[in-house]
Every structure is written in C-alpha cells, then in structure tokens.
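[Meeting: bench + compute handoff]

Bench side (C.D.) handed over the final construct sequence. Compute side (W.E.) agreed to return the predicted structure before the next meeting so the bench team could plan truncations. Sequence as handed over:
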Amino acid sequence: MSTPENNHPDDLENGQNGLSESSDDVEEIHDDDFPGYFDERNGRLYHSHPTSPYPLPVDTPEQERLIVNHVVLKHLIGANHCGPVDTVLALNPDRQPNVLDLCTGKGKWVLEMADQFPHARFFGIDIGMLPIATRSPPDNVQFELCDVNSRLRWDDSHFDLIHARDVLLGVPDYGSLLDEAARLLRPGGLFLSVEWAKQLSPYPGYDLDIEEDAPAAFNFFNTVNNTLADMHGISLDSADIKFLVNGSARFLTANTEDIHVPVGAWHESEALSRIGSSFRAGQKKLAASLKPMLLGSGMSAVDVDALINAFKQEIDTVDGLAMVAHITHAERA
C-alpha cells in the first residue's frame, strides 16, 4: 500500500510534482499510519481527506454494499468489463499494458482483472477504503492513496485502459477528470465508465411511473440528489457522461450500454430474483450510509428517518423497480 508523497497528509508541502512514470515518488503506508486517514462520526468511519467531497463511509457495511454491486454487474454483464478491453490489453511482446482504476474502493475489480490479465500492470487509486482493504496485492497490482480530482503522478500516454466505476459521488468536475484520463491514455487506449442512475426506473416490461407508483423512492433520491448538488457541487447525471465524452476532441465516439438491475425479489427468473434481493439490501445500506449527509443538510432526525423508512418499505412492496447502470466506453483519439 502506498501513497504519492505529494498527496500524503504530512507531505503536502514537499514541493514534488508527483508526475513520474515510475513509482519512486510514492511511499509505503505502515499500520501505524492508518488511523490518520480516517474520521469516525456517528458510529461510521469516513475518509479524512481535507478536500474530497465524497460523502459516504468507508467502513465494512459500505464495503459490503460495493461488493454486492460489483458481483451483480459482473453477473449481468457476463464479465468485469464492456468494450474492446481484450484487444486493448492483449499480450504485447514490446511492452507491458498498464491499467488504472479510479476510486478503486476495496480493489475487487482490480484484483479480478489482474488475475484475468496477469501480463498487465494494474494501479488502483482511492482516498478512503484502501488502507482497510488488501495489504498484500499480487505482483502486478499496486494500490495508492490519492485524490482523483488532482493531477495524477503518471506521465502522458502511460495507460492502455482507465476504468472509472462509481466515481461520481467523489468528482464534482467530471470534465476535468475526463481531461486527465485523456492525458494519461495512449492513443487507442480505452476509457471505461460505469455509473448508477440518479433515480429508479421501471424494469423493462413494467408500465410504471416512478413518481406516481413509487413516490417514496422518488422523493428519497430527489432529496439525495438535491443535497449532493447543494452541499458538494455534485450534479452530473450519469446518463450524460456520453455527451461529455463525445464533446471532447480527445476521444472517438462513445459507445453506451444500459444495464437494468432489479430492485427486489419479484422477478420470475430465480437468478434475477436473487440478484434483485441482494441489490435491494444494498440500496437499504446506501440509505443508511447517506443518513449523516442528510442530517448535515439541516433536515431533522425525524424527517430523515421518515424519508429513509418510507423508501425501504416501498422497495419491499413495489414490483418492477430497477436501478440502471450506465456504461460508457470510448477510445482515445
């Protein structure tokens, strides 16, 4: 486990630019350093990064939720990726392919991909979960603590693949992140984004109006989205990432795919019913994780509890609800 020296809390004034292609300018984090990267509030563990807007905890319940999301998407996609990843990461006798995972969380995607592509080199970066995630990664994996909203330490055109999954809650300016990804990707390299929608949708084949048929869920996500915008400046709709990519001259035309994940155990397929049940449990954990942010917005504890409890009850009783994962991938021009 390491952190770029210029991003370490004790080394913010060391004057190093941290843009080397090598890892000589990162330092290892030792066990005694871990407490300095966290704050405990209301019984939950949060990152202590002074500038990142990421509002969710980084503790075990949140890690469990993210792992459920990972497993669900892997099952529904049939792989850990979409797009021409196999081509981009093909074995190359002239050089080792490099992969960067932004906001890597516990690093599960990186570890599974590194096993699938053992000839490639993987870097996972995050501000919060890494110190309590894996501490002994495989030889072709390196985890680093740093803020994805800053200029990263690698040289231009260093990476063949940049993966950005579930990063929106920590990125107020997605356009800047996209510019940095374009800088770091080699020509022909691949940018792969996977982000959840801001609101529930009807599952295909279900004739629902979410605002009318699931008003508590609609109100919950509407309140969360407004709070994120007001408190953290986070307002981008994940469905609009493709427009940012297509508006950049540094990428070729974006390709998109929408994955509908059932919320609840109502699906007639046994496999999708299990997925829906697990994902619904994850949505309830998400609501609990968002509670401190909602309280911090000025809502009363009574109102926050009523909002969350109504949401939980509704996703237990309304069939046909889904959450959409918007997948966008584009090659570097």
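W.E. noted at the follow-up: The chain has nine helices and twelve strands. C.D. will use this when planning the next construct.
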